UniProtKB/TrEMBL annotation:
Protein name in UniProt: Uncharacterized protein
Pfam families found in the cross-reference section: MTPAP-like_central, PAP-OAS1
Origin: domain of life: Eukaryota
Lineage: Eukaryota, Viridiplantae, Chlorophyta, core chlorophytes, Chlorophyceae
InterPro entries, A to Z: MTPAP-like_central (IPR054708), NT_sf (IPR043519), PAP-OAS1-bd-rel (IPR058920), PAP/OAS1-rel (IPR058921)
Domain Poly(A) RNA polymerase mitochondrial-like central palm, chain residue ranges per copy: 33-164
Domain PAP/OAS1 substrate-binding-related residues, every copy: 183-237
């Protein structure tokens, strides 16, 4: 049997409408919104996570008191797309004029220095938050991972890409709101819905386990919204495209 060459995918508005725009019952949409509201960040969980961020940032500044560094959050916490089990991503960063020199100076020692500081905090009986399981992950991007008040905190070093990605996704969310006014934060709500399905239902989310990464998922959702933006009005339709 002769194999025909694969052709590039061509968008057919009528087919897309049939595929992505079935006549959703009001009850189904209402249940979807309820599901999103149950797994999306709440004001209480945001307060808790930002309190942890402030605490860890204070430890970082104390650990590197001589150097002018801080810890900057990025990823799903400032984007407000994390799940109830989501972790906190922080990157050690500096805006001082000597930031590049500082980066080179601490590149090989920051993780071991901070590990000792966090272990000291773990042994502090008067600590505001309980710190545990401090470990350095020697991956392509070196991470210091720990538990703070039972929430996983991943600390990296001068990860400009992560900070730029967060700013880019915030810009995307605002642009989608302007382009598709039928639903505020359609992009972020779609990420939460798809992320919830990938994590709780299909178990395919988790780059550290060799599964799909959060950034890949966000890119996929962006692709679907960009491709079907003329038809999409709610996160359930976006999840159909994924």
């Amino acid at each position: 049997m002769a194999l025909t060459a694969l052709q590039p995918y061509k968008s057919n508005p009528q087919q897309l409408k049939q595929k992505l725009l079935p006549v959703f019952a009001d009850e189904l949409l209402a249940r979807t919104d309820t599901l999103i509201s149950r797994i999306r960040p709440t004001s209480l969980s945001l307060q808790r996570r930002y309190a942890i961020i402030e605490h860890v940032t204070a430890i970082v500044r104390r650990c590197f008191a001589i150097q002018d560094v801080t810890a900057v959050p990025f990823g799903s916490v400032p984007l407000k797309t994390y799940l109830p089990d989501g972790d906190i991503d922080l990157s050690i960063y500096s805006t001082s004029p000597g930031a590049q020199t500082l980066k080179e100076t601490l590149r090989d020692t920051w993780a071991s220095q901070l590990q000792m500081c966090l272990e000291d905090e773990a042994n502090n009986p008067n600590a505001v938050f309980r710190v545990a399981n401090v470990q350095v992950i020697h991956a392509e991007v070196k991470l210091l991972k720990c538990l703070v008040d039972n929430i996983v905190v991943d600390i990296s070093f001068f990860q400009i890409g992560g900070l730029n990605t967060y700013n880019f996704l915030e810009d995307v969310d605002r642009f989608v709101d302007q382009s598709i006014p039928a639903r505020k934060h359609l992009f972020k709500d779609s990420i939460i819905l798809v992320k919830g399905w990938c994590y709780y239902e299909s178990r395919v989310l988790g780059a550290h386990h060799g599964l799909i990464s959060t950034y890949a998922l966000e890119t996929l959702v962006l692709y679907v919204i960009n491709l079907y933006h003329r038809e999409l009005t709610n996160p359930l339709q976006a999840s159909e495209g994924v």
